[in-house]
Write a structure and sequence with these properties.
Length: about 100
């Protein structure tokens, strides 16, 4: 019985050694593997925040919120309907 347990231990130890070696091989590819180097994380965070802000702005434009009170504000009678022209939008390009 003791011999069987020792063989089991040896087999398990070999499996553990192989798993640890594989883990060491994977470590460099992990994000944030080096806890002392947080500059990469900070840089990625700032980039993502900038991307999110740009996407929110684009969504506002698509929803007409950034242009005033919606698409109809581009052709306001107050300014003679020229706001669309100022933005580079013509009747043909708006359709």
């Amino acid at each position: 019985a003791l011999t069987v347990k020792r063989e089991d231990l040896e087999g398990t130890q070999k499996e553990l050694d192989a798993a640890l070696a594989y883990f060491d091989k994977l470590k460099p590819s992990c994000v944030g593997a080096d806890a002392s180097d947080s500059s990469g994380f900070d840089e990625r965070t700032k980039r993502r925040e900038s991307e999110i802000a740009a996407l929110k702005e684009a969504l506002e434009i698509l929803n007409g919120e950034a242009l005033g009170s919606g698409p109809q504000s581009m052709y306001s009678s107050v300014d003679g309907g020229n706001r669309g022209l100022e933005l580079g939008i013509t009747a043909n390009s708006a359709a």
